[in-house]
Design goal:
- This protein is α+β, with helices and mostly antiparallel strands.
- It is built from 3 helices and 13 strands, in the order αβαββαββββββββββ.
- The strands form 4 sheets. A 6-stranded antiparallel beta sheet has the order 11-10-9-8-5-12, with no helix packed on it.
- The longest helix has 29 residues.
- The chain is globular and about 55 Å long.
């Protein structure tokens, strides 16, 4: 690399690394928010056909405790299911939380990929960590093709409220990173066939901070054969695990 190209690349890397550091700061702030991942202490699913009454359920709540609702679809019947979530701004997990172990920023893990949209609503089965092997079908609007470590992959990123969310696994899981896999948002403008996967922003899923989440597991096609040594590793707690 010439001296000129090095001087051009260094400011770019510096800007990218500063943006990553800002992402890390915002990420930690979100985790510790009153309704961040660490604050979820209970998810109570209601009987079939019943809908939550937040006004009634919120009466006489202690300070710092709030309630929200969540909806999902029964994987067998297709019927809607509802739950009430309880958030505690002084949860045991928040009090024990010390941070998230993270790999150093590495520009080599910013990878370009090709995105191919799929017409119609194609659904792909994803197993969820609290469904004990029962898959739930999620809409995958397109395929992401890229090569990592000399191996070509076609990845399935599902639609998460208009954003592509990649659930992936790799050999670091359980040894250095969260055992159930990690998540990565993939920005896409809806038109371009080019997307960028910045694995420096791979993150521990919500179930790594509270066992009250039901996170999707990486499907077979999203499991890399080489270690993805970038992004978050796992959360650190004084007592070793979330105290929910």
């Amino acid at each position: 690399m010439s001296e000129r190209s090095e001087s051009t690349a260094e400011p770019f890397r510096g800007a990218a690394e500063r943006a990553w550091e800002q992402w890390r700061t915002e990420r930690l702030r979100a985790l510790c928010a009153p309704q961040g991942n660490l604050a979820l202490v209970e998810t109570s699913w209601l009987p079939d056909g019943e809908r939550p009454d937040l006004e009634a359920a919120s009466r006489a709540l202690p300070g710092g405790v709030t309630l929200t609702t969540v909806r999902r679809t029964d994987p067998v019947t297709g019927a809607p299911e509802y739950a009430v979530r309880r958030w505690d701004a002084a949860s045991p997990a928040l009090r024990a939380f010390e941070g998230v172990e993270t790999y150093p920023y590495d520009p080599a893990w910013v990878l370009e990929a090709e995105y191919t949209p799929v017409e119609g609503a194609r659904k792909v089965p994803f197993e969820h960590i609290r469904d004990y092997g029962g898959p739930r079908e999620l809409v995958v609007p397109g395929d992401i093709a890229l090569t990592v470590g000399g191996t070509a992959y076609t990845l399935s990123a599902f639609d998460d409220d208009g954003t592509l969310l990649l659930v992936f696994g790799d050999p670091t899981n359980g040894a250095e990173t969260y055992g159930a896999g990690r998540f990565l948002f993939v920005p896409h403008d809806g038109e371009s066939r080019r997307v960028v996967l910045d694995f420096n922003r791979a993150f521990v899923p919500p179930c790594g901070f509270s066992d009250q989440y039901n996170c999707p597991m990486p499907p077979r096609q999203n499991r890399f054969h080489v270690p993805i040594e970038a992004g978050e590793k796992r959360p650190v707690f004084r007592d070793g695990s979330p105290a929910h």
